[in-house]
Amino acid sequence: MPETSLIFEKFSIDSSIVIFEDELAFCTLSFKPITPGHILVIPKRIEQYYDKLSADEVRSMAKLVTRCSGALKRALGCKEVTFGCQDGPHAGQTVKHVHIHVIPAYDGGLIDDDDRKQWSVEKMAKMARRIQGVEVEP
């Protein structure tokens, strides 16, 4: 994985929690996951709205969404995945940098927003390695 300084709006993303990356976009774990393995697919160029992305950025993100979906199913055993994008503050966007949520769906369903806990970078790094196929332990 290339060693670059990745930014999500104003947040610097630790390279240990970057799962996949290409020239235009990257994937990282959510700091406050809805379910274990919740991934954000983010364009490298900071842009608030999806329709402001270039066609190449959209294609890059779509490829990474697909790659993440398959990796989550293999690594975590979820059978289904939820995709979501809040395109602007009125749509629920809280970070002014477009991103797509890739959320593994398990038998227990999704977690109520009030019950979500923030993960440490160490816990996220371990999950990232597991999704990448580097660590296999549950």
From TrEMBL:
Tell me the superkingdom of the source: Eukaryota
Quote the catalytic residue positions: 99 (tele-amp-histidine intermediate)
What's one GO MF term for it?
catalytic activity
* Record-annotated membrane-spanning stretches: none
What PROSITE patterns has UniProt attached to this entry?
HIT_1, HIT_2
Motif Histidine triad motif per record, residues: 97-101
Q: Which residues form the HIT domain?
A: 6-116
- Its recorded name reads Bis(5'-adenosyl)-triphosphatase
Please give the organism: Carpediemonas membranifera
- Supply the source organism's classification: Eukaryota, Metamonada, Carpediemonas-like organisms, Carpediemonas
